């Protein structure tokens, strides 16, 4: 089953509407690096916030953390990343392009057919030097995952929060992987943002918790509007498990290039805490007061990418529709993810309308991300808001000057209701929380 939208349309919409731009564009861009524009930064923040709310704020068994990107090099020796975080690399002897050996079909270079070198293992960590002297001792790495910052703080968090197991520690932040073949827009980039939860449990309960988190995470995407038929679960075969994993499931999404990983949920066992205890010389275990026993917890890890999630939400929300004989492109984004919640649109740029329209904008903007737009025709402005997924447009017309009422237009149904400006914020608040958009004016029924 092919996806309904190709990537070019998404890339073009993102550029046109200020969601995502190529990085360093005036210099010709930099491979696989992207910048989030005025709309993109809001969308990305909303994705992060939705994750944090579901994982940290709405639970009492998970706390947050924000650790540094550069860490002691010993961390990466212990975690196995220096030895094992590698991909097999081959190079074309004619055109010198480099390929992941496992991604090359047949014998020759996929570009020119030239002869390829024998595969060598290529480490995916970015290396740099700390301080003014470049020497072996000053080598540090940009973290390839946020998880290790959590493991090395396990004891700090348990001691200071006095929480019992099962206990989760969550982190959102940048990670870096020197991928041999990045691509597919923001799907695979060398700099990206991770949303990771390390959920520490008693050994023996790990399989149960793995099932639990697989379901939780799957449902999170569905709750935020991704269609179930575009998601699937896939268990890793024994031969594809990462060096630290006992078991792992991928939540795959049907991207335009086919089914690809959206999120991985791994059972890391006690691998990381044991390794860090061994390399640091500090004991990393948990004393269970109730059971009166000490053990090294197992860890269940749901690990997602912010950028990859943004891409899936964009693709799933995208639609080219024909409405009343007119074509429109619309993002049916979940209202909690939409970059702008409400657009305030005076019917035209008119000196009589502007003061009231500004008054409405000023009333709404402390409560919702609100856009004010009075340029071009009202039809073009509606289309612009549809293309960035704004759930509600509020129109101020000449009648508004007399009756102090405005029209709210809903993005998906295009239904309109007329409501008093007084109380507009309460109505929008209820609608943004998911109250049905009823074409009969809500305020009239409420007052009874
Ligand atoms: Zn070649």
What this model shows, in words?
Strands 3-9-10-16-13-12-11 form a seven-stranded mixed sheet, with helices on both faces. The protein has a five-stranded mixed sheet with strand order 20-19-21-22-23, with helices on both faces. Strand 14 and strand 15 form a beta hairpin. The protein is globular. Helix 2 packs across helix 9 and helix 3 crosses helix 8. Helices cover 30% and strands 28% of the residues. By secondary structure, it is α+β, with helices and mostly antiparallel strands. The structure holds zinc ion (ZN).
List keywords for this structure.
single chain, 448 residues, alpha+beta, seven-stranded mixed β-sheet, five-stranded mixed β-sheet, 14 helices, 23 strands, 30% helix, globular, disordered C terminus, binds zinc ion
């Amino acid at each position: 089953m092919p996806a309904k939208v190709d990537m070019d349309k998404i890339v073009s919409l993102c550029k046109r509407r200020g969601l995502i731009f190529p990085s360093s564009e005036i210099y010709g861009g930099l491979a696989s690096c992207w910048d989030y524009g005025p709309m993109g930064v809001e969308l990305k923040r909303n994705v992060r916030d939705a994750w944090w709310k579901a994982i940290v704020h709405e639970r009492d068994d998970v706390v947050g953390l924000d650790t540094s990107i550069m860490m002691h090099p010993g961390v990466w020796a212990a975690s196995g990343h220096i030895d094992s975080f590698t991909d097999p690399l081959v190079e074309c002897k004619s055109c010198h392009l480099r390929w992941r050996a496992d991604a090359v079909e047949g014998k020759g270079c996929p570009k020119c057919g030239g002869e390829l070198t024998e595969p060598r293992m290529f480490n995916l960590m970015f290396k740099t030097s700390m301080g003014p002297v470049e020497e072996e001792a000053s080598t540090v790495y940009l973290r390839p995952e946020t998880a290790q910052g959590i493991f090395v703080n396990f004891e700090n968090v348990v001691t200071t929060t006095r929480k019992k197991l099962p206990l989760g520690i969550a982190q959102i932040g940048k990670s870096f992987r020197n991928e041999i073949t990045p691509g597919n827009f923001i799907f695979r980039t060398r700099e990206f943002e991770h949303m990771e939860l390390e959920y520490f449990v008693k050994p023996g309960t790990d399989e149960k918790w793995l099932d639990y988190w697989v379901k939780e995470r799957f449902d999170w995407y569905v709750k935020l509007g991704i269609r179930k038929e575009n998601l699937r679960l896939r268990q890793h075969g024994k031969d594809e498990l990462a060096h630290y994993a006992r078991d792992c499931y991928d939540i795959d999404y049907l991207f335009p290039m086919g089914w690809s990983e959206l999120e991985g949920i791994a059972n890391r066992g006690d691998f990381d805490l044991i390794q860090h205890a061994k390399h640091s010389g500090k004991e990393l275990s948990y004393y269970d007061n109730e059971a009166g026993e000490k053990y090294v917890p197992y860890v269940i890890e749901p690990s997602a990418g912010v950028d990859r999630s943004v891409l899936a939400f964009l693709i799933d929300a995208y639609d080219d529709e024909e409405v009343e004989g007119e074509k429109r492109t619309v993002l049916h984004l979940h209202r909690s993810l939409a970059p702008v919640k409400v657009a305030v649109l005076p019917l035209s740029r008119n000196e009589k309308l502007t003061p009231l329209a500004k008054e409405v904008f000023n009333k709404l903007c402390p409560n919702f991300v609100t856009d004010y737009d009075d340029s071009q025709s009202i039809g073009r402005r509606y289309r612009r808001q549809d293309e960035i997924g704004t759930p509600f447009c509020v129109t101020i017309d000449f009648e508004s000057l007399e009756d102090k009422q405005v029209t709210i237009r809903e993005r998906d149904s295009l239904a309109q209701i007329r409501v008093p400006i007084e109380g507009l914020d309460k109505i929008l608040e209820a609608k943004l929380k998911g109250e049905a958009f009823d074409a009969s004016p809500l305020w009239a029924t409420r007052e009874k």
